[in-house]
Amino acid sequence: MHSLISIALLFLGASLAASLFLPDSLELRQIMQRYQDELEPNGTKADVPLRSRRAIRWSDREEILQLHNKLRGAVYPTASNMEYMVWDDELEKSATYWAEQCQWEHGPKDLLMSIGQNLAVHWGRYRSPAYHVQAWYDEEKDYTYPYPHECNPWCPERCSGPMCTHYTQLVWATTNRVGCAVHTCSRINVWGEVWENAIYLVCNYSPKGNWIGEAPYRTGRPCSQCPPSYGGGCRNNLCYKVITHGNPERHESPDMNEVEKPQEPVQPWTTPTKPQPKPSFPQKPANCETKMRDKCKGAACNRYNCPANCLNKKGKVWGTLYYDVQSSICRAAIHYGIIDNNGGLVDVTRKDNFPFFVKATKNGVESFSKYKPGNAFTVSRVEEQTIDCYTTVAEICPFKASTSHCPRVFCPANCINEPSYWAPVVGSNIYGDGSSICRAAIHSGVIKASGGYVDLLALDKRKSYTGTLKNGIQSERYTSSALDSSLRFLSVTQFSGQKP
């Protein structure tokens, strides 16, 4: 007679489950061996470096991913915008962290605002992770799809069984990345009962699904409503991005088939990532003698923070309205009337080959004449604007030219808690212009969840950006196509100060 098995599934809810514990069974020993003591064919323990070990076997990872895409392409009614799903290492890392906690609940709580999550646990006879993925999908038998005419504007929830949210997350059309982990828990409390030596599966998804009042996908001919970024590609009824020059396919090796050894838990959003070059930030410190030619050799350094008491300093100024690049920036700003002797922020715009410079005495500063052509600059006041958590740079500061100036904005508190569906973050360090400014600033670490001032710099379009998990926010990655000519990028930096 086969050994009994207990299985539990969880997605933002709970249902009753019965369990039996088999203290010592052949199947239990086999599954423990599978995930803890992978052996070489000759019976000796594999000698592989710890740094290469993962919390999920490569074969299980591929099986999970392939099954997700197979099931997503087979939904009924057919989906017109179902995206092909890929594996995400950052989601796998965050799933690993949570699986190692051996808590039968969703978490970490701060991360759940940005990702979706499916959980499953069992003990006894061996079951592959794909077994649980199929069980999540099998909730489809209790789910009734809400057609467009039934959504006015919110779609009704129709689940005749205990739970359908595993299924809807699995087939949520815009969820295109998954990362999972498997961990053997010596003890885990499952709805009031302690299970020993249980196998715990955690799958994290991004962008998250299961938005209340929305259907999981659009109905219609497969791939007929794919996002433009897929360039018209379609594979097995899924929106698919064709990559002509990708990395060679990886193959399974022994060092991929062991569970990572226990180590000090690290929050996934503080995991060190590969350093990336940072753009020049717009706000630059300046003293009273700082010249335009000293600091600004590119369009990025176009905002300066002038100190107080520059009125009577020695920095010279040439010109009126248009100033020679050898002029003191801060004293030129006083001369023009942008700031007074108390200092402040100044925006600078370059102008090449100005024919001559005229002297004048204004606001206590005397400028000089220069009757020969030279490079010039103008100064302007820095605008301030209060925004909400959903405001994007495309709305307040679309890219126009390398001399574009964006206002200084003030972000409110608690934008970290806004869902990524309404306040997305696209990129890392450099962000898409459709990103929430405030959540991008939190993601980059320049402000905290309590809010604050942010300076922006609109940059020209780029071909791609990376997605990372930082400071409790999962950003999205993106590769543009020829149709994405409007994509722009921004950088963010903090300005010290309090909102008036």
Automatic annotation (TrEMBL):
Entries under Pfam families matching the protein: CAP, LCCL
Gene Ontology annotations for the cellular component aspect, listed alphabetically: extracellular region
PROSITE patterns registered for this protein in UniProt: CRISP_2, LCCL
UniProt signal peptide: 1-17
Major localisation: secreted
Biased composition regions of type Basic and acidic residues, renumbered to the chain: 249-263
Record keywords: Disulfide bond, Repeat, Secreted, Signal
Localization, UniProt: Secreted
Keyword Repeat applies: yes
Chain intervals for the UniProt region annotation (Disordered): 249-284
Protein name: Cysteine-rich secretory protein LCCL domain containing 2
